[in-house]
Amino acid sequence: MEKRTGYLTLVCERKKEKTILKESLSEGALKVTRPVYLTQSGEAFLYVMNPGGGYLDGDSYKIDIYLEEGAEAVVTTQSSTKIYKTRNRPLFKGWTFS
C-alpha cells in the first residue's frame, strides 16, 4: 500500500433532529472541522482542510465518507486550494462513489 499524504474518514449518523459526526479519523495533511449547522433542517456542514500549501505532484489523498440512514451532510472546503502541475502522477486518476 502506498503512503498517503492525507487520509480522512467520516461517519455521520442522524440523531434526533440533526446529523452528527459519529466518527472521524484524519492522518497526514487532511483535517475536518466540527459540524456546523447553518439551516433548520439538521444537515451537518463539514469543512475539509489541507493545512499544506496545496496539492503537489506525487501527493496521494483518500477521503471516505459514510452516511448512515437518514443522515445528511454537506462536505466542502473553506477556500480554494492550489493544485500545482502534476506531470508525473495525475492528481485525479478516478473517482468512486458508493
In short:
Keywords: Chaperone. The chain is mostly beta strands and 98 residues long.
Structural features, described:
Keywords: Chaperone. Belongs to the UreD family. InterPro entries: UreD (IPR002669). This is Urease accessory protein UreD. It comes from Neobacillus pocheonensis. There is one protein chain. The chain is mainly β. The protein contains no helices and six strands. Strand 1 (6-15) and strand 2 form a beta hairpin. The mean pLDDT is 84. 0% of the residues lie in helices and 42% in strands. It has one domain. It is elongated, with a radius of gyration of 15 Å. The two termini are 22 Å apart.
Give the overall form. Answer: elongated
Number of helical elements: 0
Helical residue percent?
A: under 10%
Span between termini: 22 Å
How much of the sequence lies in strands comes to: 35-45%
Rg measurement, Å: 15 Å
Structural class assignment: mainly beta
- Major beta sheet, specifics? 3 strands, mixed
Order of helices and strands: EEEEEE
Total separate domains: 1
